[in-house]
Design brief:
Elements (H helix, E strand, L loop, with lengths): L5 E4 L3 H11 L4 E6 L4 E8 L2 E8 L12 E5 L3 H10 L6 E7 L2 E7 L5 E7 L3
Length: 122
Amino acid sequence: MKFCWATIRVNNMEDSLKFYQEIVGLKIEKRFNAGPGVEIVFLGDGETKIELIYNKDSTEVNLGKDISLGFEVKSVDEMISFVKEKGIDIHSGPFEPNPNTKFFFILDPNGLRIQFVENKLQ
């Protein structure tokens, strides 16, 4: 079995695209209308894929408080500086549960927790 993608319902497609392109660094793979008032965008490369869905008739997004998406970065400290420069608040962290792992969380435009992880063993 192969993982395909994570789907996120969004309040505003343009705000979400800006976040996932500029902050996370994902590129648009496909973008299309999927019916009246419904737009779908796939972002990512290789095994990292995210599907964003916007429906103008259903803008209430309900995300679980215990769900997050994690992305590996070369340096947590550099990523913290980058997101602060972009005006994004740190939601929690940084945490260092062991000498080889360091991470922190921010929120995407829909309130989904995004984790940036530095794996020092690589």
